[in-house]
Design brief:
This protein is an alpha/beta fold and about 350 residues long. It contains twelve helices and twelve strands. The strands form three sheets. The chain has an eight-stranded parallel sheet with strand order 3-2-1-8-7-6-5-4. It is elongated and about 105 Å long.
């Protein structure tokens, strides 16, 4: 993923984002230490979420505002977000901490006032969360800021994605990355459906990546192999601190393992080239070539018995075998000598 204006984002490797989310447990010290730990894992960025309970939902006891079918079963949306939000007065200090650590820091805004706060902090990238992909006025406002826009697709259908992209492009913003996301916490690995990344790229001509809620490293590695430019996973300093997102977040050891696995996957993918590396060139010593297989006297005819294609590869290329058969050696040759064209006298 590119960010020409800020120069912050890598263009030659997967951009790995550690999602802080609610994993500060209400403590700015934990939040700051989590940022430092994210740097130790090898992550490229730390991502915040910028909302308050009042900017994201209503304080209502009605049935519509009570969560069903998730790990937060029975909780009011307002109460959950009141517990999980990152206080806005922390943002400037968290951005500073990330800068000190050499990490990109950016956020997911959930309304226009959050965007305004983030703009005051020179937020370099904007992330639209899965459940906000239908908030077209928010996407339009974010896109108008001219920063790269990352959009998760956890609940999105084709028309949702199409409209979100059209909204960004209408605002003059073409730096768009769509993340395949399964909005389940934690997400089953058999619902990752990573092939959709390639479909996004084909259908909408956007960069693609993964917002991952599965446990472990398998899904990020496969996503890397399928062309992900961004991988985002929830990160927690220590699962023992608990919190709304702890059960599907990776701790420092796990996140480090994930980063290592992704980087190794990138190395394994390599680049399209028929050129050999120095190690591969050295390996040609074990290729086949033509050698004298038994002693040959000067004037003796070359046959498949006295010259053979064998390892190692320092002799004549085996493709010349049909040409030399029936010709005479111009000197005495010993078993094990490399066979060369200059050792031939003439054809019978």
């Amino acid at each position: 993923m590119q960010n020409i204006k800020s120069g912050m984002m890598k263009t030659n490797s997967v951009f790995i984002i550690a999602e802080l989310s609610a994993n500060h447990n209400g403590s700015i010290d934990i939040a700051k230490e989590t940022i430092r730990a994210a740097k130790r894992t090898g992550a490229d960025a730390i991502k915040l979420q910028t909302y308050t309970a009042d900017t994201i939902t209503l304080d209502s006891d009605k049935e519509d505002f009570v969560i069903e079918g998730t790990i937060w079963e029975g909780r009011k949306l307002y109460d959950l977000y009141q517990e999980a939000y990152t206080p806005w007065e922390w943002h400037a200090e968290l951005f500073r901490t990330a800068k000190e650590e050499g990490l990109v820091c950016f956020s997911s805004p959930f309304d226009k006032t959050a965007v305004d706060l983030l703009e005051s902090l020179n937020n370099p990238i904007y992330k639209i969360a899965s459940f906000e992909i239908t908030d077209i006025p928010l996407i339009e406002y974010v896109a108008s800021k001219g920063k790269p826009v990352i959009i998760s697709t956890g609940i999105a259908e084709y028309d949702d994605i199409k409209l979100a992209i059209e909204t960004c492009r209408k605002a003059g913003n073409n730096d768009i990355t769509f993340l395949k996301c399964t909005s389940s916490y934690p997400a089953p690995i058999d619902e990752a459906n990573l092939v959709m990344m390639q479909r996004f790229a084909k259908d909408f001509k956007v960069k693609v990546g993964l917002s991952d809620h599965t446990l472990g490293t398998t899904v990020p590695v496969v996503a890397t192999a399928l062309g992900a430019t961004v991988i985002e996973k929830h990160f927690i300093l220590d699962k023992s601190i608990g919190g709304p997102d702890a059960s599907f977040s990776l701790d420092e050891k796990e996140f480090t393992e994930m980063v290592t696995a992704v980087r190794n996957a990138e190395k394994a993918l390599g680049k399209e080239s028929y050129d050999l590396t120095e190690k591969q060139k050295a390996g040609k010593a074990f290729a086949r070539s033509l050698y004298v297989a038994e002693d040959i006297k000067a004037g003796e005819v070359i046959t498949e018995k006295n010259v053979r294609s064998v390892r190692p590869g320092f002799g004549l290329h085996p493709k010349f075998m049909p040409e030399i058969l029936g010709m005479r050696a111009n000197q005495d040759l010993e078993k094990g000598d490399r066979f060369e064209l200059n050792l031939i006298e003439e054809r019978l």
